[in-house]
Amino acid sequence: MKGFGDLQKMLKSAKEMQDRMQKELAGLRMEGSSGGGMVTVTLDGHKNLLSLKLDPEVVNKDDLDMLQDLIMAAFNDAAAKVDGELAQKLGSMGAGLKIPGLF
Fold first, then answer.
1. Which of 35, 51, 53, 57 could be a cystine partner for 40, CB 3.0 to 4.6 Å?
2. Contact yes or no for 59/67 (Cβ under 8 A)
3. Is residue 95 part of a domain?
4. Taking 90 as the threshold, does the pLDDT of residue 77 lie above it?
C-alpha cells in the first residue's frame, strides 16, 4: 500500500497549504476606490469590509443613489483586486503540485 502513504502525504501537504493560504488571506488588505478617490473601501482576502472612507463632499442627502453607486463601485474594485491576488497566489502554489490534468 505504498500508494496510500503517498496519497496521505499529498493530502497532508494540501491541508497545510490550505491553512497557510487562509492565514495569508486573513492578513491581506486590498483597497478599492471610486469617484476619483472620494469613496475608498478596504477588504481583507475573504472580502470582508474592513473600512469605508467617504469624502464629505460626496455625502449629499438629496443624491443617495449616487453615493450608493460609488460605494458599490469601490467595493467591486477592491473585490476584483482580491480576486487577482488570489489567482496569482493559487497559480504559483499550483505549479508546485504537478497534479496531472489540473495544472
1. 53
2. yes
3. no
4. yes
Total residues found in the chain within this entry: 103
Q: How many CB atoms sit inside 10 A of residue 89's CB?
A: 16
Residues 6+ apart with CB under 8 A from 103: 94, 95, 97
Per-residue pLDDT for 101 more than 60? Answer: no
Instruction: Look up the pTM and report it.
Output: 0.74
Structural domain contains residue 47: yes
14 within a domain of the structure (yes/no): no
Q: How many domains does one find in the chain?
A: 1
Burial of 85 (0-12, 13-18, 19+ CB in 10 A): middle
Domain coverage including residue 72 = 28-86
- Judge residue 28's burial from the number of C-beta atoms within 10 Å of its C-beta, 0-12 exposed, 13-18 middle, 19 or more buried: middle
Is 62 inside a domain boundary?
yes
Residue that has been written with the C-alpha cell 470582508 in this structure: 48
